[in-house]
Design goal:
- A hairpin with a 4-residue loop joins β6 and β7.
- The longest helix has 17 residues.
- This protein is an alpha/beta fold.
- It has one domain: Maf protein (Alpha-Beta Complex).
- A 7-stranded mixed β-sheet has the order 2-1-3-4-5-6-7.
- Bound molecules: inosine 5'-triphosphate.
- Inosine 5'-triphosphate binds next to β3.
Length: 197
Amino acid sequence: MKLILATQNLGKLREIKTLAEQTNHLHWLDLELAPKEFNPEETGSTFAKNALIKAKAAASLTDQYALADDSGICVDALGGKPGVYSSRYSEGSERNGCLKLMNELKNIMPEKRTAAYHCIMTLVSPAGELLCQFEGIWRGRIIDHMRGKGGFGYDPIFFLDSHNQTVAEISLTEKNKLSHRAQAWQKIAEYLISHYR
Ligand code: ITT
């Protein structure tokens, strides 16, 4: 079975591919990147709506099953922002997003800098029909300086008390055991195995 990954984000792509490769009983799944023309406008106000927009766009371009991930970081002290706007939160590089978030939180005490990564993964049929949609949530804290070189996006400032490290300091293997994306993927994988194997 071919499954199109409806994303243009290379960090996500790497994580999802690795998750899929390391899932037992899924060797029959053939993951393919969405074609170059894939560039839907994310007009939804929720992760779920945007994930569906992206999955349908990829299915319609390819006539194949498609999987989309809409994700972001929700900071408690900012009322859940930047949330669905995480990728558009700052101009330029991902580093600028981290700098902007640290700046917005500069007067907030460390213990009040709680945040969560959210991920919704959506699977659609080649006809664009919604098959399933699952969520993962990963809680952490935003620190006041960047640490680590791994991961992508907000990982250098997303601190895990459990590890005493940021997500950019842990390995991809470790991130893929814990992350919002890994949690959502686990449920997608169970769905695929139970319906298509
Ligand atoms: P696609 O829509 O093409 O998949 P995108 O980057 O625009 O790529 P989203 O709209 O879902 O995807 O935005 C997700 C943003 O949330 C991402 O660009 C990061 O800024 C942040 N994010 C999500 N998951 C993350 C993770 O695991 N680590 C760091 N940042 C993450």
